[in-house]
Amino acid sequence: MTIAQINGTGVRLRAFRADDADALAAGFDDPISQRFLPQMPRPFTTGHAERYIAERVAATFAEGGALYAIADPDTDELLGGIGFDKVVPSRRQAEVGYWVGPWARRRGVASAALRALSAHALSHGLERLELLTHWDNPVSQRVALAAGYTREGVRRGAEPGRDDSREDMVVFTRLATDSGEPVPRLLPDLPGAELTDGVVRLRPLGPGDTDFLAELLGQPDVVATSVPPVAPTPQRIRRRCFRAEAHWLAGTRADLVIEDAATGEPAGDIGVYYDDPHTQQAMIGYSMLPAYRGRGFPTRAAQLVSLWVFAETDVVRLIAGAVPGNVGSQRVLEKAGFHREALLRSRLPGPDGTRNDDVQFVLLAEDLLTEGPRLDG
């Protein structure tokens, strides 16, 4: 890269200067930067920043890559940094990365900088850019999608951690032939970040829900109807909570907590599993804590989720299932508007190597329009 400056919408990519050292040190020493840039020294001092500007930047350019300061186009204040390295000339590809200081976050800085750098790099010799993010960094994943990057998969053990461990990384890519427009999502965000009917409130599952989810999924009857019927380990619980938003952004599943709207206390969970987008069919599943059963919460939650799915996604069929003996769950689905459709023999794994039948229910958008709610208890 020989161009000294790249202009984007609301940002300017320029060369790092010696007087950027203090701001660069503050940015790299921030806890979020330290979490997702484990190769950086901790603490990251002004001395480290001065060496970074004097040595690392030049070395990256010498190796065929680039490192730019992200600056405010009006004040020239340092907002962050962006660049690419790991250039493979024979494949005309490279790996892009970026960071934004805490004083400049939630202003669209990263997305604007990534769009500007990507457009420039892909019109000056490169044909493929890769972007790797941690599973629990949904902010970075949103930046990638907004800048026209497509989620491609997961690279196992791709990132060395600080404790000699290795972390899986979610891979996004953008090609020279891509439009650069934001990538459409199969499962959009909830309007206003929640769904509610005044009695229950649904919100996305997140990192703060590990204790609640462990209690819920550890209930013996919940375990018995899980697939497979095995209580999840603490590691699986943590992974589910910390990766929930990444799965939502990927369009594969939307995990929600059912709260008592009056108290804000978590009462259960409900999820949308979009495993078959080609046929536009998704599945829902739910569980409730014993103290909140018999109050109509899962029926209300199922109906709220169904209305959101049919209004905001391209799903045309919602399915759900219950083992034949789980009459309560079947009644929940019927009151939420679902219709019994089939009995699938020995579909589900049961305890000790046994198999369970699965009673299948289905809901179509027109069912809700013609029949309306059936909340009678």
TrEMBL record:
This is RimJ/RimL family protein N-acetyltransferase. Keywords: Transferase. InterPro entries: Acyl_CoA_acyltransferase, GNAT_dom, Ribosomal_N-acetyltransferase. It comes from Paractinoplanes brasiliensis. The keyword Ribonucleoprotein does not apply. One of its GO terms (cellular component) is cytoplasm. It comes from the Bacteria. Residues 11-177, 200-366 form the N-acetyltransferase domain. GO terms for molecular function: protein N-terminal-serine acetyltransferase activity; protein-N-terminal-alanine acetyltransferase activity. Gene3D superfamilies: 3.40.630.30.
